[in-house]
Amino acid sequence: MGDGQRFDPSAVTDVARQLSKKPFVPLPNDLPDAFSNLNFEQYVSIKSLSQPIWSTEGRGIALEPLHRGFVFNNAVDLYLVEDGGVRRLAYDPSNFNFNGINIPKDLKDIGFSGFRLISHPAEGQPFNFAIVQGATFFRALARGQNYGAIARALTLKPAEAKGEEFPIFRAFWIERPSIGSNSITIHGVLDSESTTGAVRMTFRPGDMTIVDVETTLFPRVNLEHVGLGGMASTYFYGPNDRRNADDIRPAVYESSGLQMLNGQGEWLWRPLQNPETLQISAFVDNSPRGFGLLQRERAYEAFQDDEQRFERRPSLWVEPLGEWGEGSVQLLEIPTDAEINDNILAYWRPRAPMAAGAEIPFAYRQYWGWSSPERPPLATVAATRSGRGSTGRRRRFTVDFVGEMLGDNWPKDLKSILTVGPGTFHDLKLLPYPERKTVRVAFELDPGNENACEMRLILEAGGKPISETWLYRWTP
């Protein structure tokens, strides 16, 4: 659907369907050296000279196309849908201030790398709330936050020996918002060697930004390893993992843990780590009710970082729409020696492969904000700490649970249920602090000669769980 044509959402699906019947064609490497060789500082110095699209029309949401350059080399076609018609957004270098970058004199239409979405509420200050740029990546945040976790419209074969496959968005059709609305709908076509897909995303910014994602995949080949609802984040070091951390800051991470609400209604919490070697965890489930990478630490004192402000990074929670069946939430923890790397990846992996030539629809809702929209009606983990144990390879752990039920009237039959395998635990203690509505569980892990130990901890009272389940994998 190009200039002057009428827009039909079903035509986007038809484009993806027809594209899947043809061999994959990589995007051309046509970006001038003046832009492809930029460093990060040079790239972000490129500023738009134009008002964001629709910003003066009282539509609640405006659009800013983003320049190509740095690592954002691929071009994506942007089409505006206005009054039912389609208009291609053309690139014009006169719309940008290049701040000293020596651009070619005969620069033609090189397209864009993506776009930024800006909330223009009737009352209050405008704020950037989403960026769609690079591969099939996009970010969002709530009012008052900084960008952090990044979502993926599709994840293919991560951490496999042959290498991960990164799908790309080839084109977007962006519907002009209605006057005074607080939502914007975007249609996209994604493409890769293995599959194509049609994606519809509806963004609703605010104190919690909500994104509905509807996708139909058209595999070219049998897909054995597919990730749905994928998200990435950074965990460099923190109280439970200070490997090689020689830094004035007490912690550096965008997300503190992976939370899951499984199909059986059990709330699980898995603190994140920066391991010595790649760690892959699979949490087997049937019809999950939600999962996400959450930032639970909201105190400036926890990070002491005046520039990054990690305490303002969004939590990202994914809620499947419809039944996703059997599969597993997969967590990849990748070793990193730099805080700029997104070394954490989480996604839902269906158990059944997706067959070549099939049409596979799925949908989910994302919540970007200060916490997940649905919280456990239980005590939750506030902190996990680890350090050297009393002897040999032993490690000392403390896990703090917080909740209203742990206040002055905390249950006197409260007990902690800890399991370790392989390995053993010692000196298990339960330390209540009702004035802080906190219970600390302390213990030592003895891994023996093992190089990986799985731990599971929960608080019980009256024979019933009163806390979420803490999960942890220790590795040297």
Automatic annotation (TrEMBL):
Domain Glucan biosynthesis periplasmic MdoG C-terminal: 7-474
Any single biological process term in GO: beta-glucan biosynthetic process
Keywords (A to Z) from UniProt: Periplasm
Cellular component GO terms, alphabetical: outer membrane-bounded periplasmic space
Upper taxonomic lineage: Bacteria, Pseudomonadati, Pseudomonadota, Alphaproteobacteria, Hyphomicrobiales
InterPro entries, A to Z: Gal_mutarotase_sf_dom, GH-type_carb-bd, Glucan_biosyn_MdoG/MdoD, Glucan_biosyn_MdoG_C, Ig-like_fold, Ig_E-set
Protein name per UniProt: Glucan biosynthesis protein D
Pathway: Glycan metabolism; osmoregulated periplasmic glucan (OPG) biosynthesis
